[in-house]
Structures are given as structure tokens and as C-alpha cells.
Amino acid sequence: MLRLLAATALAMGILAAPAFAQSGKETLTIDLPNDAATLDPHLQWNTDSYSVYRNIFDNLVTRDADGKVVPQIATAWKYVDDKTLDFDIREGVTFHDGSKLTAEDVAYSVNRIIDPELKSPQFSQFSQIEKAEALEDGKVRITTKSPYPALLAQLVKLSIVPKAYVEKVGDAGFNAKPIGSGPYKFVSHQDGVRTELDANEDYWGGTPPFKHVTFRAVPDVSTRIADLRTGQADLVRDVPPDQAVTLKDEPNVQILSVPTERVGYLYINAEAGPTKDVRVRKAIAYAIDRQGLVEALLEGYGKPVDVIGAPPVFGYTEDVKGYDYDPEKAKELVKEAGAEGAKIEFLTSPSYSRAMVEAIQQMLNDVGLDTEIVSSDQATFLKRRQGDPANAASIAFGRWSCACQDADGIIYPLFRTGSTWAKYSNPDFDAAVDAARSTLDKDERQKDYVTAYKILREDVPGIGLYQDYALYGANSHLKWQPTPNESMFVMDMSWQQ
Amino acid sequence: MLRYAIGRLIQAAVAVFGVITIVFVVMHVSGDPTLLLVPQGASAEEIAALRHQLGFDQPILTQYLAYLAGLAHFDFGISVVQRVPAIDIVLSRLPYTIYLAAGALTVAVGAGIPVGILMAANKGTLVERALAAVVLTGQSVPTFLSGILLILIFAVELRWLPTSGVGSLSALIMPSIALGALSMSTFARMMRIAMVDELGKDYVRAARARGLSMRAVVMRHVLRNSAIPVITVAALEIGNLLAGAVIVETVFAWPGIGQLAIQSIQSRDFLVVQVIVLLISFIYVATSVAADFAYAAIDPRIRLAR
Predict the structure, then answer these.
(1) How close B46 comes to chain A (CA, Å)?
(2) Where is the ABC transmembrane type-1 domain (chain B) (predicted)?
(3) For residue A14, is pLDDT > 70?
(4) Which of A11, A405, B46, B230 would suit a FRET pair with B270, their CA atoms being 20 to 30 Å apart?
């Protein structure tokens, strides 16, 4: 009898297995390097946090696969004048608690993030907004302090939160138990371990592809890859290029990569030290083999760029050429400037690839400079890099993304006189980026940015190195096209047997 | 005894106070979290505004006094990164640190003590040399390497154990071994030295001369006498295991205090770091006091002396 029972159980098990597999995948597990710092979408803005919470919320507008700004909660928008934009709000959208999403909620969301009381670290992305108001006809009107061309690009990042609920439970309560209108509902969060989400079956945009999604915090990249290989995780973020190459041969695993708006660049101090001499800055530009860096260190997951920008960024241009790799010319320039053996301080932190930094150091030393790497933790790095020019080192490697796909978010903060990052000042450059910031005319703006990039080429306060690719490891059944703005919307994913 | 205990407690309080003061000063002097919190493109005014809102523009002394005033009411402050009370974050991680320390201690004591005894009992033989190799391996292989090797062998190749994370007892096995290996070697070495030392003493020869078997001598007398130095080590090791599991916790995605500490230091989440420092100081003090009491329980001479 017992043996019969066991045999039946076994047979049932065998039969049940494929039946279960055919029913599709229930739970998607995603490994991120860190836990979400906050689930309140108006607080922390970092990749691991928004990878999670942006699935819980809808945004006012979003980007399609081609990077174009398209409707989400707003169905249409119209400029009333240069500083006033009216949005039509989508009908029939409900929050996870069943309440209706209205223009009031949209206006509240905008005003909440710019309210000093919230102390939002994201404030700077929305600081050009004067106010938002719900109009009587159900529209929302956003007023900016001056004509602000990057407004829509910034609103892609604005999550809509339920006014009544947030006011009822308070900021802390909302952060602990967020409610949105997005494709996934918050279930639970265990600090440093995982966040669990459930599908919102009533989602206005269609049925979400997985019933449950688990985001786990797995800091070590080797462990994330082991999770992927064993099937414990279906998707892992932040796979380094050298690991991606070895994973290519692995069965059941695929590498998903996408060229992003992020650009690897080298800052060069134009206001202090040996690099104050433009000839030394030009020598540095000639000394760096961008193609070599991409091939050797990024395994081809990157593309050399001529300017500090990338194709998905508005204002990016191919009309301005970079400096060709020419060590002989670099040596001449170093000699001409009398800077042979000049001490070049190379500031860096563990956040940046050590191999990249050392490769650049070698290239600079090869043309007669004496480059010294100074590594500190990220907080100290930022303090020095953004502080007094005399203490901001000669060069530093960085990977820049404004998550707004607009040159205004890149070269303005990096090089505009008075910006914290700028160790450089040129009134002509300032005039160009200021002009591009204050008109809504796209052709005018593009022209201004070409002018600005041309000035940067001559003055060399920094050089573009490569367009960064985002790399994800995924189960080979997962179908997903990652986006240039490094977002992670589960709604765009599916599972193929 | 009471006077001794009170003295110890006052010493401990002074030490803890000194530690939090030093950590406070060092962390604040080396930069505040504002720059890490804002998006890259933030302007100088926006950065200054957030710094002011978060209170980091106040003189360090003002911030320090405000912090102490909070501590006096058991208010440990709110994490500037997570916007959650710092104490809640640390307490939610504490159980995992305790599980892992317990697991590692089980490995360390369970393997280290018998290995030490075997080495002492087989002094000069091939057995001792073979065991010495094990001890040396445990002592010298860095945990980031042993951790990854364990994952590759037992999780990826053999699929016996989960690669990382929490939720089942099986997930505790590999981190415990990786973390316990170093302590295991320490225990084995200490046990061996203490045993060899004791075995050479006159009372052992006397007992043997009276006809007691070696086994009886070891079990009844030698072990007890050898235990004193081993307990001292154990107290220190428990402190280390609770505080020093940063790498193992990172490799195995184990959400303990060590991982939290390193992340909070990197993000300059001052108040969380302070709570962790307080907690770890407390653990060190508590374990060393506990060790004192343990000596007294095991060795009557110490009891009599007080």
C-alpha cells in the first residue's frame, strides 16, 4: 500500500512538473546591488531605489522604446505660454486602495517634491518648477520660473502619489507602506533583504506579466551571478563587462545590454595646477586611446564618443570631432608647455573602475606626465571634486547621467561658471548653455549646444571618453529590452518558454 | 565583587562615550551625506539648501550636543538616507548578526576544540601535521575567496545549498563556515598550546604515576585547566564574530550589522553608524564581563581570590 502510494505520488509529481511550467512564470526575482533606500518615490533618487519603486507608481509622462516622451498619466499637454504647461489627466485610473487618481493628486505630487518641508534630495531636478495647480476642468497647470525646455524630460521621473493617503498616514507612514497607481502593488519590505510586490490586476495599462516580483539586495557581483546561474534570480543588475563575457557561453543565461545616456568622461582642471595650461589639457586629450579603453576594459560594451554626451541625449552632436589618439603630438605639447614630469593628481574613489583609472594613468605617463592616483571614499571624493579648484586635483574620471537625456543636465552642471563641478570659466560657453536653457525652440537649442561643444573642444576642461552600456544578466527565458535611461519597468518584460 | 563590577561598568561607559565621540568627529570632519544624496546636476544653492534642511550646516559642536541630548532620551535619531529611525534599522539587522555569529561559533568551537585536542594528544605525529595544514588553511584563506569557492562548489555545481540570502537554515551553513574558519583555527591553536602546556605539568605525571589512564587525566583535569585561556579567546572571538562579518555578509547577501555598517559609512548615514558603534562597544564590554564570570565559575582559585 505504502509503495503504491509512493509510486502514485512520484507519478503525480512527474506529471505535475511540466503542467506547472506551462502555466507561465509566477514570480520574477531580481537581484539588485543594494536594497531600495526609500520606497517613497519623492525621496531617494538612485538606481536601486527607483528600480523598485517606479513599478509601484505611474509617472506623469514616460519615454517609449525610442526615447520619445509619451503620455502616461497625462494624456496630452499644451504650452499656454513659455512658462505655463497644461496637462490633460487620464480618466479611470485608480490607486491600489481603490481611490480615483485625479488632477488634485497630480498637482499635489509636484508641489510635494518641491516643498522644502519634505527635504527631498530630488529637489534639484524639479527646482525650476514654480508651482502646480489643479484647474477646474480637470487639467493640471505647471508653471516654471523661466522658460524651461527640460521640463518634460524631468517630469518623466515624477511619480504620482495619492494625496489623501499620504496626508492621512504622513511621510513616514507612506515611506513604510507606499500606495501608487502602477502595475505592481507593495506587499512587504525587509530592510537590507528584499521588497515584495504583487501584480495590480486592475492596472489601466494592461495585465502585468508576473503575479509576484521580488527585488533582493545582493551586494557582491559574484554572488549575483551565482544566483543567476542557479536560477535563484531571473535578472541581475550591474554586471561588469569582464564577467559578462564569461557568462555569454553559459546555458540558460543571456546578457542584455543597451547603450545608455551615461557618458564616461575625464574632467581636467582648467583653473589650477599644471593643467591650467591649455597645452597640457590638449596633450592629455591626445594621449588617451578611447577605442583602446573600450576594447580592452569594456570588452566592447561601450562606444567611444567625441564630446561629453551620447546619442540618446538632446544636444548631442557628431559635428564636433574629438582629439585623435596621437601620443607623439601629446609629447610635443607637453614639451612645449614645459610640463615634462609635471605632477598630475588623479582623484578617484572605489565607485569608479580601478582598471580604467590605471589605464588612463599609464597613457598619460607614456607622454611624459607624472600621474599619481589619489583614491578616497566617495564622500571625500565629491567634497574635493566639487570644492575649491586648487584642491580639486588635476583630473578625475567620471560616469555622468542626468537621467533627463538633455545636454542641459550634463555640460551645464559640469562646466557652467559657478557650478560646483566646474573648474573652468568661459563667458562664451556660459552664454551658449544659458541660451539653450531659456528657449523652447529645439533648433535654436541644438545650435547652442553645438556652439558649446565646439568651445569645450578648444578649451578642453574635460573630454568625453565613451558611451556607457548598461549590462544585465538574465535568464534566457526573460524577454526584455533595457532602456537608455536605465529604468527597470517589469511591465515591459515577459517570459518565453 | 560588587565594587569590581561597578568599576568595570564605569570603565565601560567611559570607553563607549569616547568611542562615539571619536566616531562622531571623524565622520563629520570627513564630509556630510548631502553631496551623496543629491542628483549629479544639483546646483551649489540647491546643495546648500538641502544641507541646511538636514542640519549639517550647523557647527559640529552644536550637532554633537544635539546628538547627546537625544541620546539622553534614548532618541537615536532618524536615518538621513532611509528616513526611518536609526535604531529600528539596526535592530532589524541584529537577529541576522546573532544567527550568523552563533553559526560561526558552532563551526569554530565544534571543529576547533576537537582539532586542538587531537593535535596536542598526537604531538609530533603525522596526524598533527595534517591537522596543522587544515588550521593553516582556515587561518590564511581570505573570506572573500573561501565564500565564493563555497558558493561555486555547493550552490552552483552541486546545488545542495542556496547561493545567498536568508529565509532557511540551509542558507546559514555556508556563511557560518566561511566566517567560522578563521576562529576555528584560533580555537584549535589556543587549545593545542594550552593542552600541551598542561600535559607537561607535574600533576599530570603524578596522576599517571598513580595509575590513572591518559584519557581520564585529560578529561578530568587537563581540559578544565586548559579552558581558561580558551575562554579568554572565545570572548574576543564572539566580539569579532558579531562585529567583523562585513565581507562574509556582503558575499552571501546576509543582512547583518557588518554589511549595514559599511554601507552606512559609505553613505555617511551618521546616526545609523553611531547606533552600530554603540551596539558593538556594548557587545565587546558584555562579552569580556561574561568571560570574567566564566573564569570564576570554572576556576575556584579565581573565586577565592576575590
Answers:
(1) 6
(2) 94-291
(3) no
(4) B46
Tell me which residue in B36, B93, B265 faces A192 most closely, judged by beta carbons. B93
> How far, CA to CA in Å, does A89 sit from each of A73, A95, A99, A163, B104?
6, 14, 15, 15, 57
Q: Quick check: B304 pLDDT over 80?
A: no
pLDDT of residue A276: 94
CA distances from A313 to A5, A126, A309, A420, B235 (A): 65, 19, 6, 22, 58
| Residue A21's pLDDT band (cuts 50, 70, 90) | very low
Q: Is the Cβ–Cβ distance between A244 and A301 less than 8 Å?
A: yes
**Neighbour-count burial for A143-158, b at 16+ CB within 10 Å, e otherwise:** ebeebbbbbbbbbbbb
Note the pTM of the prediction, 2 decimals: 0.85
CA nearest neighbour of A400 among A388, A412, A418 = A412
Question: Which of B30, B253, B268 is nearest residue A217 as measured by Cβ atoms?
Answer: B253
CA distance B213 to B177: 35
Q: How many helices (H) and strands (E) does chain A have?
A: 16, 19
Query: What sections of A127-198 are H helices per DSSP?
Result: 151-155, 163-176
Least Cα distance to A95 among A82, A86, A107, A106 occurs for: A106
Q: What are phi and psi of B51, to 5 degrees?
A: -60, -40
Which residues of chain B are within 8 Å of residue A123 when distances are taken between CB atoms? 38, 42, 46, 49-50
Residue of A nearest to B41 (CA): A413
Q: Which of B26, B37, B152, B252 to mutate to test the interface with A (most CBs of A within 10 A)?
A: B37
Q: Where are the alpha helices (DSSP H) in chain B?
A: 2-29, 34-37, 44-54, 60-72, 86-121, 126-140, 143-150, 170-199, 202-209, 214-217, 223-243, 246-251, 257-266, 270-298, 300-305
- CB burial of residue A26 (10 Å; 0-12, 13-18, 19+): exposed
Cβ–Cβ below 8 Å for A378 and B36: yes
H or E element at residue A491 = none
Interface contact A124-B253, CB threshold 8 A: no
Residue A35 has pLDDT above 70, yes or no: yes
Q: Which residues of B touch A412 (CB under 8 A)?
A: 41
Whether the per-residue pLDDT at A104 is higher than 60: the answer is yes
**Domains in chain B: boundaries:** 100-269
The alpha carbon of residue B145 is apart from the nearest alpha carbon of chain A, in Å, by: 11
Q: Which of B82, B156, B265 sits opposite A37 (nearest CB)?
A: B82
Q: How many residue contacts between A and B have a Cβ separation below 8 Å?
A: 146
Architecture of domain B100-269: Orthogonal Bundle (1.10)
Distance CA B275, CA A32 (A): 26
Between chains, do B164 and A37 touch, taking CB under 8 Å as contact?
no
A119–B54 C-beta distance less than 8 A:
yes
* Share of residues in chain B with pLDDT > 70 (%): 96
How far CA B49 is from CA of A151, B45, B46, in Å, comes to 21, 6, 5
DSSP A159: B
Q: Across the interface, do A125 and B39 touch by the CB < 8 Å criterion? A: yes
Beta carbons of B257 and B248 less than 8 angstroms apart: no
How is residue A34 written as a grid cell?
A: 543594494
Residue B148 CA to residue A89 CA, distance in Å, equals 51
Among B30, B46, B148, whose Cβ lies nearest the Cβ of A379? Answer: B30
Q: Which residues contact A156 (CB under 8 A, 6 or more apart)?
A: A59, A60, A61, A62, A63, A69, A404, A485
- Please report how many Cα atoms fall inside a 13 Å half-sphere around the Cα of residue B256, on the Cβ side: 27
